[in-house]
Specification:
Length: 369
Amino acid sequence: MFDWIYTHFELPGFFRVFSYVSFRALLAATTAMLMTFVLGDPTIRWLSYLKFGETIRSDGPSSHRAKAGTPTMGGILILVSLTVACILFGDLDNPRFVTLLLCTLLLGMIGFADDYTKVVLKNKNGLKARTKMLLTILVAIFFLVNYYWATPMVVDRERGIYYEFTSIFVPFFKEPLVVLPLVLGIVLWLFVILGSIHAVNLTDGLDGLAIGNVSIVAVTFGILAYLAGTPRAADYLNLPYIENAHEISVFLAAMAGSGIGFLWFNAAPARVFMGDTGSLSLGGALGMTAILLKKELLFVIAGGIFVIEALSVILQVASFKLTGKRIFKMAPIHHHFELAGWPETRVVVRFWLIGIILSLISLSTLRIQ
């Protein structure tokens, strides 16, 4: 909004700072974080008043039983702070930015419906799996259609944009690995979005685990978005220049800010859980930004914690069905370490550290290519 005001009205020279994406990204992160701090206690009291308490699975670690009744649906707090910061400091004339924000909110609504079904309607399974899958696929398709129309199939090479719409890049290599047919590209992108949604949802099982790693990946992708959208930086670092991609860094900064603010209340012992309202929307947002930045494969590294969590569930289920034996004491893998005797905080902090290391490896691809 501030960028639009500066562009369309004659304002004193000081307001020119709002034309700088880096400045607006910093303000978006700070605003989202402060809003989360301010609204946190009232939101927790409101959720407690409505009796929106979490139900703990009976087959999980016994230490989790004390968490029963902790307010959930805290993802509302994250989404409100994120949205306000994006409206204030984002470029609302940028179709990719608006589509990304809108689809994140739509996924949040699906997550809210799932949480509401579990908590209020007392259906422990939430929305029917088919219904939730169908709704998330529809949102993903809506995003991809808008992404397609906002991105030319063959990009102007004279301006330094040397890839095509469905080009797939591999970490540590500056040239695209392959240009996929449109249908295969759509299939890959659907897999990225849906996989990211479910991986973040699976990771959201310990206090602060999911939101901490989401914030780490958001910061990493925010740096990549800013560099990819800046022609000189993209050319120097051999990155595919993506027109106006630096505007996505404002969204990611706001997401990281709201995530850090939420962590204040979600760190052990958690006073509120984000629920599917948060995990579905934030997981989808990460998957969509990976597509916008042409970092679908790099996301496997940057979001490695989410990949490991999802793979642990897949391997556990496959092993049990094929052999009748379990690989882990319990899946997702963070519960395995709990049952092995690790305190919850140790598991969370070590997973954060691994997430930071993976993000640093991801950023190292900027020069090793």
